[in-house]
């Protein structure tokens, strides 16, 4: 593996925007969070806070209008809802994979809806906010394997057992004898350091403990987390790439920046094999050169919180290279831009098959370049200023109406105290009077505000009295489809990681069946594509109810049984209450298994002479009849008992008649509606 040119990587990182890590607030931040110079908590203009003359006077209105923030938040909430309620399904790329697609879907839903539910919802909300505010956001799909060290006790007997499993003649096979002999202490330390990866100081301590006490303390790696992870990255703060990039997969470099504490850096060294020399250099770079990061919210009113004091910059550079065999690989180089002579680590992501582990989400597509897309603040900036100007004017006008300026004789030096009920001395009538306020119509300002809001609603498709409902719904659906397509790509990438890192036994436990998934990278890359779909009309409960009623109304004419009623019931309950639906509904395979177990138990009790519990209008009667024939037909003891036990025969006959009655009643309902009995029945 060729060593990368660190100087070139730092140069490219700087060109992508990463070197200027002191946060410079972007216009999008200013507009969304309503931040500008000279602000105060009371929402008024004060000359002491501004270097220029405030207008129209000291203490005038300085209203914060939240139009951009409101639209970003609304759209982010809609997109997050679409993510959590969207239908996640695996689509096989080959016909032979169709039978496993449902199990693959169950597997990935387990991660989205159970194991990673909170984490993924949080990242989905972040990605939606980044896309709405900055125009785009990036998802990083990776495998999260967290290892921590724990001190455990190891006995001399365990050391003997380890040596017996080692190859004869090696240092490890001779370890017990080396430990027991004080003269060979250094040799024992060498073996522990080389074979078990123990630091020399700890290895020497362990040898002495084993020789003196028969047991000692050994640091052991413990896997505390082993699952996929999807992280939303903030543009120009957590992720950088060359400005000419059109598609992430064709980018020359992708940089991800993280901030780590001192103990996290040392953990990277001790557990994950980062260079110890590099770690020492990184820990020195902040001395006398403190990095300050200004958060877009915490900088307001000069609070200056959010400094990265005690944190250290670590950059992960992803790039593609073709090796001598013509194989395309993704390389990951870890560095700090201030440490120009050493690397933290260099590795090949061989499990990615030449694909960057990143997926881009764009709010709009108006140009091919990835960064050429606008966020909501770029679009509503002038509209927001228009509304602010009108509201400030209304506030200042009200101030003039309540407390207009006074006209007084120029020769008078009297100081007047103005408040309700106060007495003003007057030397001659008419010498002191209020100045007439400007003759303006406040309705004009309200009309301007109303017009701007209507224009904004029409542009973004906000569904209200100001917009065409058909166009508004189309805009919202397009926004949701664009967002869920990004997550479809991310889930497809995540499933490949699951295939790579999770054992067949664990996969079978989650999916309920043995998936028999491919293990080679060539097969993994093309087995399944995942999709997330959501109909924005389902946000309207009246629409959902009417749609379900229409579907249920078609069930009586489904003579071929093409409608999967178990799935229909699961969807219906989920639409009414997703949380309740997950609590009370079982999957179809689980429901069938439960029905089979009930039939098996009933037959076993009847073989002992017990009467079965008969059910009226049992919706699972047809399924139970099939299971009854299967259970009795596959058990020779039941068949033999039917030949000699008249009671068992009578009980089983009644059980079958009860089930047949439920089937007949369901058929009679259909005949009553149709007037005829289908020939197929």
Describe the structure.
This protein has 681 residues and is an alpha+beta fold. It has 23 helices and 12 strands. Mean pLDDT is 81; it is low at 288-293, 299-305 and 520-524. A 5-stranded antiparallel beta sheet has the order 4-5-6-7-8. A 3-stranded antiparallel beta sheet has the order 3-2-9, with helices on both faces. The protein has helices at 6-15, 27-32, 67-85, 98-115, 117-134, 156-165, 175-180, 185-195, 200-213, 262-272, 276-282, 376-402, 442-460, 469-501, 504-511, 521-524, 541-554, 565-576, 578-584, 588-607, 621-633, 636-644, 646-674, and strands spanning 87-92, 136-155, 215-233, 239-240, 253-260, 312-322, 328-335, 345-348, 358-362, 406-407, 433-434, 528-533.
Beta-strand residue percentage: 5-15%
Strand order in the largest sheet = 4-5-6-7-8
Mean pLDDT level: 81
Radius of gyration: 36 Å
Shape: flat
Helix share, percent = 40-55%
Poorly predicted regions are 288-293, 299-305, 520-524
Oligomer: single chain
Query: Total helix count?
Result: 23
Distance between the termini: 69 Å
